[in-house]
Design brief:
Layout: H1 2-8, H2 12-15, H3 19-23, E1 25-29, H4 32-43, E2 51-54, E3 56-59, H5 68-71, H6 74-79, E4 89-92, E5 97-100, E6 115-121, E7 125-130, E8 139-143, E9 145-147, E10 158-162, E11 165-167, E12 170-172, E13 183-187
Parallel strand pairs: 1-12, 1-13
Antiparallel strand pairs: 2-4, 3-10, 5-6, 5-11, 6-7, 7-8, 9-10
Length: about 200
């Protein structure tokens, strides 16, 4: 994994300040667990202080599941992850690349899949610069918003207040569709079990 990271992100500690350096590179993998693991490792290589943002999670009232808060304590609630949905805990540094997970302002270019570089970390908003798609170079503000996963992902209504972003040093193969990159590698860990 270290060789893969250094091949795609050589001299990361200085190169991350250059937008084209970040725009042209990505490691692709099949699962969100691998994405999270690699993103965390690469984020640790950036200089600067890491800030952690925790979401506010709650189950919405449901006639179908009236006692859902009693069944699912906060620890379980916070561990829930869904495709296209931010994690309970997001760690960020200034200069980190992120991808938007929701449409916020299509006119401004803040659409699902837009790449950004974090420029300032605030408690309730992030200041960032667009690096992909429309309005490249535009400075924007990303707020925490209330999000709910689709009913296809979960039988109950979870509401998570969090920044609608994910680190994007590494992305799933599916999330990266439609982007053009010069430096790209696919990471597929060896399966734990083999059939045969």
């Amino acid at each position: 994994m270290d060789n893969l990271i250094s091949e795609i992100y050589p001299e990361l500690s200085t190169g991350y300040n250059d937008s084209p350096y970040i725009q042209e590179r990505c490691i692709l993998t099949a699962t969100n667990n691998d994405v999270d693991q690699l993103n965390s490792q690469i984020l640790g290589m950036l200089p600067g202080t890491c800030l952690t943002y925790l979401s506010s999670d709650a189950f919405q009232e449901s006639n179908e599941y009236p006692d859902i808060d009693d069944i699912h304590p906060p620890k379980i609630r916070h561990g829930l992850t869904f495709s296209g949905f931010p994690n309970y805990e997001i760690q960020l540094k200034i200069g980190a690349p992120v991808v938007l997970l929701r449409n916020l302002d299509p006119y401004l270019g803040l659409c699902n899949g837009t790449g950004l570089i974090v420029e300032h970390l605030r408690s309730k908003v992030l200041e960032a610069r667009i690096i992909t798609r429309r309005n490249i170079g535009q400075k924007v503000v990303i707020p925490r918003i209330d999000l709910t996963p689709s009913l296809d992902d979960t039988p109950f209504a979870l509401k998570r207040c969090q920044f609608p972003i994910k680190l994007s040093f590494t992305m799933t193969i599916n999330k990266n569709q439609g982007q053009t990159l010069k430096h790209i590698r696919v990471y597929l860990p060896k399966p734990m079990f083999s059939h045969g």
